[in-house]
Design a protein that fits this description.
Strand order of the largest sheet: 3-2-1-4-5-6
Number of helices: 12
Helix content: 25-40%
Structural class: alpha/beta
Bound molecules: manganese (II) ion
Oligomer: single chain
Order of helices and strands: HEHEEEHEEHHHHHEEHHEEHEEH
Shape: globular
Radius of gyration: 20 Å
């Protein structure tokens, strides 16, 4: 077994200080993440909103996303106040953007040039173009929640239990509960500090992971029975036709984690999950170890990380399967 070579990122504290100064000196904040936010976006937004309210009690802090809070993290303290919008109204001193490669990744809900004075860009993805006035971007950090932790710690305020729960949720959902290669020394050091701040680990894992609907399990059963293996069983191809999705009465939340199931097969190094919706197929990609699945996603204009990426393909389900297999084949030259 290989040793964990994941590096501990060195943080530029002058950026963190710029963010803290911005929090102290501004009056209105809009916090937002990528379209269809995940556990890391929601946890980061909630922890950051709480921190801003403590540092700057008179300020107005709104959280708005293009998409609902996933059911698995809807219990987080403050999640009821997160708004699912198609458009942000009015103007803000600051917009804090989590996990986005640009304004369009937020679903186009806000116009930076006319509605915002200052853009703070916080992300841990590769290829972030540093579109903000302040850019706190660390691709070697496991999760945005860890970046929020660094800001909170540097503020000098003791971390509150509600904030710790939100940040911990961001870290564990992005690291697969510390199983993925993005887990590094810093991740576990931060996790330890969050535990010290009162995170109830067992209760939290039950709420996040053991709270699926019956439909989600029936959908998973369908997907796994129809799984195909390719390239000497190194690739698992999973799919769900729109017709089956509707027949089962499934909800988009029911698809969470489905793509990871393909990786359970011993020989499989890359798993693709295709979801048909209208004339577009959404593709989730996962890989093991050094297999770079991000390259495959980028071939279709998508993005993400080396081991977890996604893209959309304008094609029929069968057409998209052929497209994605053709690109996956490039992982295995010769
Ligand atoms: Mn993340």
């Amino acid at each position: 077994m290989k040793t964990n070579t994941a590096t501990t990122p060195a943080t530029d504290l002058s950026i963190v200080d710029d963010i803290l100064t911005t929090i102290r000196e501004s009056h209105s904040f809009c916090l937002s993440g990528h379209q269809n936010p995940d556990g890391d976006v929601i946890g980061s937004e909630l922890a950051m909103a709480s921190l801003i309210r403590r540092m700057n009690p008179k300020s107005k802090v709104d959280i708005m996303n293009a998409g609902p809070v996933p059911k698995s993290v809807s219990f987080l303290p403050g999640a009821d106040n997160i708004r699912n919008v198609t458009r942000v109204e009015g103007k803000y001193d600051v917009v804090m953007v989590f996990e986005c490669s640009g304004a369009d990744r937020m679903g186009g809900i806000i116009d930076f040039s006319s509605q915002v004075v200052k853009v703070v860009n916080i992300d841990h993805h590769l290829h972030n173009p540093n579109f903000g006035h302040i850019n706190f971007v660390e691709p070697t950090t496991s999760s945005t929640a860890e970046l929020i932790f660094k800001i909170a710690e540097r503020s000098g305020l003791p971390i509150q239990k509600n904030e710790a729960i939100c940040m911990y949720t961001g870290v564990v959902t992005d690291t697969g509960w510390f199983r993925y290669g993005n887990t590094n020394v810093q991740t576990l050091e931060i996790a330890a500090k969050l535990l010290a701040a009162g995170v109830p680990v067992a209760e939290l894992s039950e709420r996040v992971y053991l709270s699926k609907s019956e439909t989600a399990l029936r959908l998973l059963a369908w997907v796994l029975s129809n799984m195909t293996l390719h390239f000497e069983k190194r690739v698992a191809l999973l799919h769900i036709p729109e017709r089956i999705f509707k027949e089962l009465g499934a909800h988009p939340d029911d698809l969470e984690e489905v793509v990871n199931q393909g990786l359970q097969v011993e020989t499989v190094v890359a798993s693709a999950f295709l979801k048909e919706k209208g004339d577009v197929v959404k593709v989730s990609l996962r890989s093991k170890g050094d297999w770079d699945i991000n390259r495959v996603a980028r071939a279709f204009g998508g993005g993400g990380h080396k081991n977890a990426s996604g893209c959309s393909i304008q094609n029929s389900l069968e057409g998209a399967k052929a497209d994605i297999l053709r690109e996956l084949q490039t992982l295995f030259p010769g």
